[in-house]
Write a structure and sequence with these properties.
heterodimer, A: 462 residues, alpha+beta, six-stranded mixed sheet, five-stranded mixed sheet, 9 helices, B: 223 residues, alpha/beta, Rossmann fold, 2 domains, five-stranded parallel sheet, four-stranded antiparallel sheet, 8 helices, elongated, transcription (chain B), WH-like_DNA-bd_sf (chain B), CheY-like_superfamily (chain B), transcription cis-regulatory region binding (chain B), DNA-binding (chain B)
């Protein structure tokens, strides 16, 4: 079935229409034929019933009242036996023809040319250049006599056959005439619809970021196509916007440190004789350049994670141990910053993953909390076991992320502070999101919280 | 230190040569892997530096060849490819360390020293000693000037790594790799915080400072 479907999809409009019309024509003819056969068989049954009743009546008449009565009944007193020509002319006039034979096979009365045949039989005769089809029945009675009856086929059968032939012919002629018309109409309809769609696509192409196809909704033929084009435009707009944000991000992240390096070089020219100052300038310039290298390393890292290659190296990990060790490492860092890190980790959570990446995931989120939370903030990291996985939550007491920008925090180079005064390159959370995706984990920034609270649902191994 | 460098990029080679020269180390330089294979297996180098993308063959294949012909000289791979997969490939081929370009010379130097010092006789030391500080690697006991110091697990690991590379620079990246197992830079004061806590226990109560900061590079432990 699938193969037929594939084959059909490869055909041109002409071939499709042709095959469909042909199949329709064949099925119409089949229906007609079936109807005709039914009619003919009904008529035949009628004739047969007549014959079987009649044969018994003739025999009864012969038994009870003798040959005279039979001859009388059929007005055959003068010619109790008649030859083939008379037999044919009787058939032609739809009179009953018969032959009554004695026990030893002698013709008593009836047509001389009829020979005995037991049961039903059909015969064809030629009379005055016309074919006569007859149906006959032969029966041997208990007294040894036998009787053969023949009658022409019901005339209505010929009528049914003739009409059927005519109808089939008409259908074929109609199909031959109508097919080119249907093809022409279909082709014009399709080309009108597609040029309408093409016109819309052309209009939308002037402003693909903001405009979408509208009229496709009323266009039944290309509804799916219109919808797909809109989806494709959405996806492309998204990618385009990401590329734009990225370009701006990269430009910013390069421009700021590079101009600082340029400034330092100018200062070096001024401080050529002052070694202490020179060393400071070199140090600062160096660290600015490091930040550029770091941005690119992060981009490459992000790309590597998103490629999914690392999935091949996944191992069974004790997430509880990993989270606990890392958070305990970070606790003094928070303490030195005047903040408090509360750690709560359940035992024995295991998952398939990449330890290096999970370390980076937690480390990036803790760094984020360290950098952007309020002074003396309370920061927490919790690992809980849930019915269908594990939940890792990293949150802080404030000030949190504005709900308007919450949707963008995982985008590359997105920075909540447009001035980009804070250190960092807006890739940390993109990397977090990519690591979550790689581990089939979902990450959500919880809404309506005092601070930034990230919830990660991690699939686990039991 | 006698170093063999296989690197086709003239700028990088010059950068390394200049640095090593200033330190008084000897350098032999080749631009093609095939030229370097015979000297690498016949001459006595302390460390070999191999670039990955060489004009005639992949550095990784060259390292495999050296290792199959029983050359045991420590090898450090230089590469522009930062992915973990490449790192693992390099280490699997028999390299001892891996450094991603661009790098600071101090980083390379620290790693070269660490590798060169990894001679078989020093590996079995159970007790590491620097001045009046000693660290027992079997009991994990640390004493300075007769006083026992109570170290947290991370502090112990940092100190052990510093003492294994005593008198040599240990960079922040090296500590991240060996103590935390990180192959990424968390851009944080994680290392500084722990080293500073270690110093509070190790140096503060005593007159003489053992751990010294090399600005912008890392730390050195020496008496």
């Amino acid at each position: 079935m699938l193969f037929l479907n594939k084959l059909f999809n490869k055909l041109s409009l002409f071939s499709r229409l042709f095959i469909t019309s042909l199949l329709l024509l064949i099925s119409f003819i089949a229906v007609l034929y079936f109807y005709a056969v039914k009619q003919v068989s009904a008529l035949n049954t009628e004739t047969r019933n007549e014959i079987t009743t009649h044969i018994d009546e003739v025999h009864a008449l012969y038994k009870e009242d003798g040959l005279e009565a039979v001859l009388d009944e059929y007005e055959l007193e003068d010619t109790p036996k008649f030859d083939h020509q008379t037999f044919l002319s009787r058939l032609d006039e739809h009179e009953i023809t018969f032959a009554l034979l004695s026990a030893d096979g002698e013709l008593i009365t009836g047509a001389e040319s009829l020979t005995f045949q037991n049961g039903w039989h059909r015969k064809r005769y030629r009379f005055n250049d016309e074919m006569i089809q007859a149906i006959g029945f032969g029966k041997r009675f208990d007294d040894g006599t036998s009787l053969i009856l023949q009658t022409p086929m019901n005339h209505d059968i010929y009528e049914v056959r003739r009409q059927t032939k005519q109808a089939v012919l008409l259908l074929i002629v109609f199909a031959l005439v109508s097919f080119p018309v249907i093809y022409w109409v279909a082709r014009n309809y399709l080309s009108a619809q597609s040029s309408q769609l093409a016109k819309q696509v052309f209009e939308v192409s002037n402003d693909p970021s903001n405009q979408r196809l509208e009229e496709y909704k009323s266009n039944h033929t290309f509804y799916g196509l219109g919808k797909s084009i809109n989806q494709m435009l959405d996806e492309m707009t998204k990618v385009h916007k990401q590329a734009q944000t990225m370009t701006v991000g990269i430009a910013h992240d390069l421009k700021t440190p590079l101009s600082r390096v340029a400034n330092r070089i100018q200062m070096m020219q001024q401080d050529l004789d002052d070694k202490a100052h020179m060393l400071t300038h070199i140090d600062k310039a160096n660290s600015e350049l490091q930040s550029i290298v770091q941005t690119f390393s992060n981009l490459i890292r992000l790309n590597e994670i998103e490629s999914g290659k690392r999935k091949a190296g996944f191992k069974l990990l004790n997430v509880s141990d990993l989270v606990l060790e890392l958070s305990e490492s970070y606790a003094p860092v928070f303490e030195d910053a005047g903040k408090q890190l509360t750690i709560s980790v359940v035992d024995g959570v295991r998952c398939l993953g990449d330890a290096d990446l999970l370390n980076q995931l937690i480390s990036n989120l803790l760094e984020n909390a360290l950098r952007y939370s309020e002074e003396q903030a309370n920061v927490w990291i919790r690992l809980q076991s849930q019915f269908d996985g594990a939940r890792l939550q990293i949150g802080d007491s404030g000030p949190g992320i504005n709900s308007e920008i919450a949707a963008f925090v995982f985008e590359r180079f997105y920075r909540a502070d447009y001035s980009r005064k804070q250190p960092g390159n807006g890739l940390g959370l993109s990397i977090v999101k990519a690591i979550c995706d790689l581990h089939d984990a979902t990450i959500t920034l919880l809404p309506n919280q005092a601070g930034a609270v990230f919830d990660i649902e991690l699939p686990i191994e039991r | 230190m006698n170093v063999l460098l296989v690197e086709d990029c003239q700028d990088t080679a010059e950068f390394i040569a200049r640095g090593l020269n200033q330190q008084g180390d000897a350098l032999t330089h080749y631009t093609h892997a095939k030229e370097a294979l015979i000297p690498a297996s016949s001459m006595n180098f302390d460390v070999i530096i191999f670039d990955r993308m060489l004009p005639d063959m992949d550095g990784i294949d060259a390292i495999k060849l050296l290792r199959t012909s029983n050359v045991e000289t420590p090898i450090i791979v230089l590469t522009a490819m930062a992915s973990t997969e490449d790192r693992v490939k390099g280490l699997d081929a028999g390299a001892d360390d891996y450094l991603v370009k661009p790098f600071a010379f101090s980083e390379l130097q620290a790693r070269l020293r660490a590798l060169a010092r990894r001679s078989p006789m020093k590996q079995v030391d159970h007790v590491l000693v620097v001045g009046d500080l000693s660290l027992d690697r079997t009991t994990q006991q640390c004493t300075r000037n007769g006083t026992e110091l109570d170290l947290m697990p991370r502090e112990y690991k940092i100190l052990e790594y510093l003492m294994l590379n005593a008198n040599q620079l240990v960079t922040k990246t090296m500590l991240l790799e060996h103590v935390w197992g990180f192959n990424f830079d968390p851009q944080t004061s994680l290392v500084q915080t722990h080293v500073s806590r270690l110093r509070n226990k190790l140096d503060k109560p005593f007159d003489h400072e053992l751990i010294k900061t090399v600005r912008g590079c890392g730390y050195v432990i020496s008496k």
